[in-house]
Structure formats: structure tokens, C-alpha cells
Amino acid sequence: MNSLRGIQKPKNWNQILDSFSACDVPYAYIVAYYISRFDKKAYEKLALGNHTETHDAIGKILGIKANTIKNHRDAFDPYHDNPRKGWYQRELWRVEREVYEGFNVYSHEELYAIVRQILDTPQYSLELIFTLVSQDKDKYYLIDSQPYFPLTEEFVNECENKTFYEGAKQTITVNRYERNNQARQQCIEYYGTSCYICGFDFEQAFGELGKGFIHVHHLIPLSEINQEYQINSIKDLRPVCPNCHAIIHKKNPPFSIEEMKTILNKNFQHNDQ
Fold first, then answer.
1. What distances in angstroms separate CA 107 from CA 22, 37, 92, one per listed residue?
2. In this prediction, what percent of the chain has a pLDDT beyond 70?
3. Among candidate residues 146, 144, 162, 132, the one with its CA nearest the CA of residue 60
4. CA separation (Å) from 104 to 5, 85, 96, 107, 197?
5. Whether the model pTM is above 0.90
6. CA distance 250 to 191
7. Are 241 and 214 in contact (CB under 8 A)?
8. What is the pLDDT of residues 139-161, one digit of tens each?
9. Where do the DSSP E strands lie in 31-187?
10. pLDDT tens for residues 100-113?
11. Which of 210, 195, 241, 6 is closest to 127 using CA atoms?
């Protein structure tokens, strides 16, 4: 039995982290890469059911639609030896390319350990994910006989009572809006890395692991502008923590910064009473 001790970060670690800054749910790409590369073995190892049930379970964990996982794996499929053609007509996006180039060196057991930790603790940074895998990775061998993923009775019943249909053909068109990393950096240099809404500071909470980590929010979503435009890193961007960023986009159009602060202050005042 091979040990996972000594698992190293991807050689393009910094490029991966940089590409993640432009994604709402970057871990979806790593998980999709895993199931594309190992296909049947991956679904069996995850032990979450058939393909549709697995996509649905992963979607629930990462807070995205199940079909998003399928779409992401479609991008990787042409690069792997599996029976699916995927999106063979397009090149990999930057984040997909970085994930593909960085994670293709891992064995099935190593990549599974990383993916399982992601699904276990999707709220953690990638740095912390790797730290946990390195410190406690021997436990993943227990999954050969018993799934490590904590399936609740409620979740199992929900999956068993669903009816799924497969095989319908559909054409999906996706618009991708490029982020300017220089503008992101200027925003952080001006406002700092504390959340502009709730004030959370990752470095204060996690020390060196959290240093420099923060999301950057576009006050006007790029999807609304629908064209290339000159961005002002001070006027158009704000640093926000992942929690606030997720809540901002709970409605369409997104909540404004002022609305978020009002909601937060109102609820804190209510809880203090």
C-alpha cells in the first residue's frame, strides 16, 4: 500500500491561485477534472451514486447546479482517455488549463484525497486543503471498504426518492468574461484585504495561511456590461470575503454594498438584543 505522505503542491501553484481569483466556485474545476480523468473509477470511489446523483451531491456541497459539474468535466473530457467527447471544439479556459497542468501529476489516490478533502471542507482555502491532506491523508484508504463522506439519512432518502432522466441532447452556450488581475491587485492595494462589508480579515483568523486572501467584487457585474470596458480599480471594485460575496449574488441583480451593510448591521443589532 503506497503512502500519500509527502504529497506536494502543484508546480504551478501560484498560477492556479491567481486563476481562481476570477472564479466564483474554483473547486468545481478540480472536482470535474478528477471525475473526467478517472471517469468510472472516480464515480465508484466517491460512492455518491450514479453519474447524475454524484453531480447532484457535489453541486449541493459546492453550492452550484449539478449540471455545472457536468459542463466542467465536458471541458476536460477531450484530454482524457474516456468514452466521452466533451467540448472538443474549444480550448481550455485559463483556470481549466492551470488545473489540468497542475493536477495531472497526481495518482488516483492522491487526487482523490485532495477532492475528498475539498468536498469535506469546501469553505477552506486550497492552502489549508493541502495541509489537511498532508497531515491526515492515511484515513483516505479507509474509503475502499467504507465511504468517508458523511452521508446523512436525510440526504440518502432525498436521493432515493428522485427520478432522473438521461440521454436528452442539449446545446449549451456560455459567455465567459475575463477579469483583469492587475485591476484586482490595485483594488487590494487601495482597500486592503479586509472584507469591505463585514471587516473579516483572513490573516488575523488564519495567520500566514490567510495572508493576502480575499475576493474582489465588481460593483457592476461584467455579465450586465456584456462588453469589454475600461475598469477603474478604485471605483468599480471592492474586496469582500467569500461569505459576503456569495450572499451578494443571492439575487439578480446582486445586492449593493450599502444593502449588504444595512442587512448585516440590522441582524447584528437584532442578535444583540
1. 28, 11, 22
2. 73
3. 162
4. 18, 19, 12, 8, 38
5. no
6. 24
7. yes
8. 433 222 233 334 444 444 554 55
9. none
10. 999 999 999 999 99
11. 210
